[in-house]
Design a protein that fits this description.
Helix content is 74%, strand content 0%. The protein is mostly helical.
Length: 81
């Protein structure tokens, strides 16, 4: 039973990551901001391999920030402030 729950959570997190990536791609923000958001999503994706519950929480916070329009500070394409 627990394994089924884990697999279901993987599916939910994977679907939400796809949606989050699509949202970031369509945002009208400077390229540096888009890159910073994409890096955050990649960190969440990597975290899902080790701690799925933590990754789900991080993704929830990330999505809430997007919904509220809270983005990283504008950074240059090379990642420098």
């Amino acid at each position: 039973m627990e394994r089924d729950d884990q697999l279901e959570l993987y599916g939910v997190v994977a679907d939400r990551l796809k949606v989050a990536h699509a949202r970031v791609r369509t945002l009208q923000v400077p390229e540096g901001v888009r890159m910073a958001l994409t890096r955050k999503l990649l960190v969440i994706t990597a975290a899902a391999k080790h701690d799925l519950a933590d990754a789900a929480r991080r993704l929830e916070w990330f999505t809430a920030d997007l919904d509220e329009g809270r983005y990283p500070e504008d950074v240059h394409a090379d990642g420098s402030p």
